[in-house]
UniProtKB/TrEMBL annotation:
Record Pfam families: RNase_H (PF00075), RT_RNaseH_2 (PF17919)
The protein, known as: RNase H type-1 domain-containing protein
PROSITE patterns named among the record's database cross-references: RNASE_H_1
InterPro entries, per database record: DNA/RNA_pol_sf, Rev_trsase/Diguanyl_cyclase, RNaseH-like_sf, RNaseH_domain, RNaseH_sf, RT_RNaseH_2, Viral_Replic_Matur_Polypro
Coiled-coil annotated spans: none
Domain of life: Eukaryota
Native source species: Podarcis lilfordi (Lilford's wall lizard)
GO MF: nucleic acid binding; RNA-DNA hybrid ribonuclease activity
Length: 505
């Protein structure tokens, strides 16, 4: 029950209590806070349009003993969760506690943990006073990212000052952390808008960021995220009538706490240009042909003939002259063969100026868009699993730094035009199919597969195998599992059989 005049609040409170009494509801006299300027509510102290943490709640957290098991850690996180709105970068501060809940086994509590816990307690002691939300006034959400964390301050203007209503923070997902900063802020804004709605109740919300969120959503975001994720972000940030997206290059939440909000200045940050630059493995990598240097065409092929799959690659010139070609293991897909073709072209062009044409959108996308991101994230997909043929992709990215100058240009596949580029692409396709008929070349795949010496009698004397394992160890079964033999008595295994091989060992 709230009001501006004591007399009115008293009368309204009495009417409410009488009404509750008629309904048979009992009111605890000990808990009753009747017509006071300062009241305790859900562990918070409310006074004069503000709220702050109850000192008794803070004291209870400060007296917690070091956790001995995961139950104690969850208890600590639960108590701290009630205070998260008062703690700047809460998600970042308690990350070390969340990490202790990952995996099995007992937890450990060392000196580093004790120091971090002291930092949390120090932050609690100095927790600021927050303003109560005023649903009649617009809310301002200031968003940025810090140490893999979405950080924001929800504030409202009181007179000439901006007062904080809540501190918001969320740990970014592993996939999001590998994006360019400008796109990470889009995810951060969406996460914090969802959190802030618990306090704004549909009130007008203005989102401020040093990045051009709306421009990124319509321009570059679709290249980096799935359709489902993009739709979610657009729904949260662009289709809600109560949300306005703004750009503020002078973002500094501390300025809003002390009321020294600077005037808005034109944004000089080019998000789209920055995203394009951050996506490249090398800054001078071009999507358009170079005016000088070599002009090469590459292609990878994988097809089935007479029930057997054949794979190969080729690097050629415009007139069809083969620079290098070769067969690949039969289980290699067309995508993997294309990656090998581009990798070998870059390795052969070390120290040269070269323009390489490819009709593979996948290979083109790896070097221009996804490759650096995948490597930064450890070649881990959104579901936590490893990207296929990781070793080959890493080899491609390393080879990209070899040429003096390089351009990787995409050209449509299977065209019948008469331009030199279209003719060169047809030659590459033809040479790759011809090469697929041969025997895999040791040089091209030795860095991408596992080499295992054939076991001799002496090697196996002390080993014990089941009948099924003995059957798999025979030469016939190894060859059925895509092993490839060379005269030097080494077998080169495809990635599909590595896990089985380790099991046998």
């Amino acid at each position: 029950m709230m009001g501006e005049k004591e007399k009115e609040v008293r009368q309204d409170s009495i009417r409410l209590l009488n009404w509750l009494g008629k309904l048979g509801v009992k009111v605890s006299k000990d808990k009753l806070q009747f017509v006071q300027r300062k009241v305790k509510y859900l562990g918070h102290l409310l006074e004069g349009g503000t709220r702050k943490l109850d000192p008794e709640r803070v004291k209870g957290i400060l007296e917690l003993q070091p956790p001995k098991n995961k139950t104690d850690v969850r208890r600590m996180l639960g108590l701290l969760g009630y205070c998260r709105l008062w703690i700047d970068q809460f998600a970042k501060l308690v990350r070390f506690l969340n990490q202790k809940l990952v995996g099995d086994g007992e937890i450990t509590w060392g000196q580093d943990d004790e120091q971090r816990w002291e930092e949390v307690k120090k932050t609690l002691i100095g927790a600021p006073v927050l303003a109560l939300p005023n649903l009649q006034q617009p809310f301002h959400l200031y968003v940025t990212i810090s140490s893999q964390t979405a950080v924001g301050v929800l504030a409202q203007k009181r007179g000439c000052r901006y007062q904080p209503v809540a501190y918001l923070s969320r740990t970014l997902e592993p996939v999001v952390r590998a994006w360019p900063t400008c796109i990470q802020v889009v995810a951060a804004a969406a996460e914090l808008v969802v959190e802030s709605r618990k306090l704004t109740f549909g009130g007008a919300l203005i989102v401020h960021s040093p990045h051009q969120i709306s421009t990124v959503l319509t321009g570059a975001a679709s290249t980096w995220m799935t359709d489902g994720r993009l739709t979610h972000y657009e729904t949260v940030l662009r289709t809600s009538p109560d949300i306005t997206l703004g750009t503020d290059r002078n973002l500094n939440p501390a300025e809003f706490l002390i009321g020294e909000r600077k005037e808005w200045e034109p944004d000089e940050h080019d998000c789209l240009g920055t995203i394009q630059l951050m996506a490249k493995v090398r800054e001078d990598l071009s999507e358009t042909p170079l005016t000088m240097g070599e002009r090469w065409y590459i292609d990878g092929s994988s097809y089935v003939k007479e029930g057997k799959r054949k794979s190969g690659y080729a690097v050629v010139k415009e007139d069809g002259e083969v620079i290098e070609s070769g067969a690949l293991p039969a289980n290699w897909s067309a995508q993997k063969s294309e990656i090998m073709a581009l990798t070998r072209a870059l390795e052969l062009a070390r120290g040269l100026e070269v323009t390489i044409w490819t009709d593979s959108r996948y290979a083109w996308g790896v070097v221009h868009t996804f490759g650096r991101t995948w490597r930064d994230r450890g070649f881990i997909k959104a579901n936590g699993k490893q990207i296929e043929h990781m070793a080959l992709l890493e080899r491609l990215l390393d080879a990209l730094t070899g040429p003096e100058k390089v351009a990787v240009v995409h050209i449509p596949a299977h065209t019948r035009g008469t331009t030199p580029e279209e003719a060169g692409n047809r030659w590459a396709d033809l040479r790759a199919k011809e090469a697929a008929k041969g025997v895999p070349n040791e040089i091209t795949i030795q860095q991408c597969t596992l080499r295992v010496p054939i076991l001799t009698t002496a090697d196996t004397e002390n080993l014990t195998f089941t009948s099924q394992e003995i059957e798999y160890i025979t030469r016939e079964e190894w060859e059925k599992k895509d092993a490839v033999s060379w005269p030097n008595a080494l077998r080169y295994w495809s990635s599909n059989t590595v896990s089985s091989l380790v099991t046998w060992s």
